[in-house]
Specification:
By secondary structure, the chain is an alpha+beta fold. Helices cover 54% and strands 10% of the residues. The protein has eleven helices and five strands, in the order H-E-H-E-E-E-H-H-E-H-H-H-H-H-H-H. The chain has helices spanning 14-21, 30-33, 77-85, 89-94, 105-112, 114-117, 121-144, 149-168, 179-186, 192-210, 221-251; strands spanning 22-28, 43-48, 64-66, 72-76, 100-103. The protein has a five-stranded mixed β-sheet with strand order 3-4-2-1-5.
């Protein structure tokens, strides 16, 4: 018999949620976008499923955890679903990374919902985020005479993803077809007016694509909620069985948690 699982302590080690309960983990950033160079960091993102009994306490499990490794950030499953339904660009891209490091059955089911999260709302969220980044870059140009070129590259990359998502109904984050020009932009080899022109053209093309996009008006909220509900229920049952096993073995005088 295997050892009964243990819930995190009353004051849980949040890193334990990542180490022990991750259902999906991937590499993001330039490596996932096909834009990595020798100097690129390895940015890791993940999703953990906090055991259902943790939600019965006054102190709820965290919605996100930074670490335990450098450049690592994870979200609790419900938070990921909430943000993805809102068409959060960061979360949607995480769910489409080609560089998967951890994938459990729950993670597989989450990824099977990728299309359920996609909707025309992505146009508003992607372009809104792009507009905020564009404004910051313009402020840099006014103040310092030049933008932060790496940020400018990722602004253009995001707009490329938005345009193609609206055109095809599928989110593809691999920017390899545009790699040479994007990396030239990152190195500052394009002029700021050239970048402005590229950004404007992509925004116009996204607007045009919105009129004929195959994406639905709204995401499939009911399908996602059904997934979250049965996943939480299965977690509750698993931990209830574990607790009962501990009690029964204790009544027989056996050591709790013995394999």
């Amino acid at each position: 018999m295997t050892a009964a699982p243990e819930l995190p302590a009353e004051a849980p080690d949040h890193h334990a949620l990542v180490r022990d309960h991750t259902v999906y983990a991937c590499v993001m950033g330039s490596r996932a976008f096909g834009l990595a160079t020798e100097a690129s960091d390895t940015d890791r993102r993940g999703v953990y499923l906090a055991p259902t009994p943790l939600f019965w306490r006054f102190e709820k499990p965290p919605t996100h955890v930074e670490g335990p490794r450098e450049e690592e950030f994870s979200w609790e499953l419900e938070r990921v679903c909430e943000l993805a339904l809102r068409a959060n660009p960061n979360i949607l891209e995480v769910l489409h990374s080609p560089l998967v490091e951890t994938l459990t059955p729950v993670g597989e089911e989450l990824l099977s919902l990728r299309e359920a999260f996609l909707s025309r709302r992505a146009h508003a969220t992607f372009t809104r985020y792009a507009a905020s980044q564009h404004a910051k870059l313009r402020a840099d140009v006014r103040t310092h005479g030049a933008p932060r070129w790496k940020h400018a590259m990722h602004l253009v990359r995001l707009l490329l993803s938005c345009r193609d998502l609206l055109r095809t109904g599928r989110l593809a984050i691999d920017a390899t077809p545009h790699r040479d020009r994007l990396l030239a932009l990152k190195r500052g080899e394009l002029t700021w007016p050239e970048v402005e022109s590229w950004v404007t053209r992509l925004a116009e093309e996204s607007e045009a694509a919105l009129t004929t996009t195959p994406l639905p008006e709204s995401p499939d909220h009911a399908r996602v909620e059904s997934f979250l509900t049965h996943t939480r229920r299965a977690s509750a049952v698993r931990w209830a069985v574990a607790d009962d096993e501990v009690v029964q073995r204790g009544m027989r005088g056996g050591p709790v948690g013995e394999g």
